[in-house]
Amino acid sequence: MFTTINRTVQSWLFGIMIAEHIAGLVPPGTHEYHKLVPPHTLTGAIADCGFDVVAVTGLSFNPLTRQWSTSSDLSINYAVTAIKRDFEDDADIEDEHESQ
């Protein structure tokens, strides 16, 4: 499982400006916007490494209760769950590429 922050206007506003500079939830400079990863980039890299993505889930933080919960909103924080492909599946993919 991977958890990270999406690269969106919302993540810049809430994940960097508010969380770091206004609310002080994390130290200033913790996040660098250009290093944030959109879901399609992360899921593509995971698939290229021989994993099957099983779920992409939004994560929401409630600053009043300081609790995290899952959601359908991927605009700020999200999690990607993946499982390693079977070796035989990888071999089948390689065979398909070789035959083309």
Fold and architecture overview:
The protein has 100 residues and is of the alpha+beta class. It contains 3 helices and 4 strands. A 4-stranded antiparallel beta sheet has the order 1-4-2-3. The longest helix is centred in the N-terminal third of the chain and has 14 residues, at 9-22. The radius of gyration is 17 Å and the shape is elongated. The two termini are 33 Å apart.
State the helix count: 3
Which percent bin holds the helix content?
Answer: 25-40%
Stretches where pLDDT falls below 50 for ≥5 residues?
Answer: none
Strand order of the largest sheet: 1-4-2-3
Give the strand content: 25-35%
Oligomerization: single chain
Order of helices and strands: EHHEEEH
Radius of gyration over C-alpha positions, nearest whole angstrom: 17 Å
Distance from N terminus to C terminus (CA atoms, Å) equals: 33 Å
Give the overall pLDDT as a whole number. Answer: 91
Largest sheet: 4 strands, antiparallel
Structural class by SSE content = alpha+beta
Shape: elongated
Number of strands: 4
Summarize this, please?
The protein has 100 residues and is of the alpha+beta class.
Task: Give me some keywords for this one.
single chain, 100 residues, alpha+beta, 3 helices, 29% strand
SSE order and pairing:
Blueprint: E1 2-5, H1 9-22, H2 39-48, E2 51-62, E3 67-71, E4 77-84, H3 87-99
Antiparallel strand pairs: 1-4, 2-3, 2-4
